[in-house]
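Structure, all two chains, one model.
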Amino acid sequence: MSSRGSPPGDLTDAAIPTDQTVPPVSGGMDPTFVAEIAAEPGGEHIRRCFACGTCTASCPVREVTERYNPRRIIHMALLGLREPVLTSDFIWLCSTCYSCHERCPQDVRITELMHAIKNVAVRHGHIHPSFRTQVDQLRQHGRLYDITAFENERRVEQGLPAITEQAKEIAAIVAATGLDELVGTQDG
Amino acid sequence: MGDPQAAKRHVPHVSGRYALYLGCTAPVRALNYERAARVTAARLGIELVDVNDFGCCGFPLKAVQHDAALLLSARNLALAEEQGLDVCALCSSCTGTLAEANHALQSDEALRQRTNQALEAATGHRYNGTIQVRHFVRVLYEQVGLDRIRQAVTVDLSGLRLAAHYGCHYLKPVDAHDRFDDPENPSSLDRLITALGAESIYYEGRDQCCGGGILGADENTALAMPRLKLERVAAAGADALVIVCPFCDIMYELQQRRIERIYDTRYNVPVVFYPQLLGLAMGLSAEEVGLPLNRVKSKKLMEIAGDGRAQG
């Protein structure tokens, strides 16, 4: 806790290598937006937020960049700022540390809420490219990193058992949940 | 050091035999961790059974689609259940994801039925909600226990000043982990370190996240997070950072030289997995705990490993 909210000029300021400009809020207010988030698994508690800011004060990402601010995202969502939220880069910056999740006095369940907002963004065609790559990798290999012959040689050298990739069932789950469409069907 | 939570919380029964859940990262990026976990488990009477067909835990899909992530988790839980085994995972994110899914599927029968319908259609498996999910280090802490670990120590680690890094998903969300440790002021890893005779030091930002969750989304922001940790651990004069997750290792060890280049500095903070330390304290050799694979070399640990071999 002592590391949060450090004074200007210390290490945390110097630790911001990225663009610090906060994106301007624009676009119309859509009252259906918060209902859509609340209907998403994990998003159910969004309306409980009373904007105390415990999440932002607890956030280790906010400690290194002003671009990510969970209280701001939740408030934007509550105001119905659909497009600015769904098309933003900042919704992808939650590191899923669960600090805010555990500390939130209103049990907004913020880590799961951020997942719900991202799920809504994906459904409306706004997926971060890194996740597209991961879905494709899972579909092809069943895991985030391939187990190549080289990897198995290294494993055996270390006295560890070789692993055979089993992607078929995972590819079936990806197809059954409609995620195939997110990554295209180039390799069937 | 009593545990005030212990009396209050309900800890479901677990066996001494587990399905070893390697996850995606450990078996290709942290062979040292896997090796040390297997050898120390065997010596301490924990049987780890390989299940080749385990796949991704579902963590990366939580941001994409909730149901797909839950199905991947449920598939792995079903595979372990088919063997009649609880899950023991090396990766904290895998542990958190599987434990969270398990918690949801065990406490919500309607959700379990819906999930099983989709899971059976896609894969032929179904999950009945009968198993538990544990992190390997939690198994060491709760099941092997500090007393048996103290008894197993043959090499004195006193003089080592170590910085414990719990990371996030080893502890949180607390409901999924039966509140086995306090997320605001955790002590399990500190106790495991001191049980080996080493000192667990305080340093600023102990609870800070490694940033691994956003490495793919925004590399510069992600790397600013381990930079803070390395800065603080180096300032505290720790001999090593002690971790329990292969993704934390990617951020603190694999990326350390890169972070040093970006910020034009030098940390040289050795990063070691707890089971490696445990193995060294039990008299295992550097090779047996995979120490030669650690990228940032620790002269002190190598010396200890040399002593351990001489005594063993």
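Residues 66-82 of chain B form the longest helix (17 residues).
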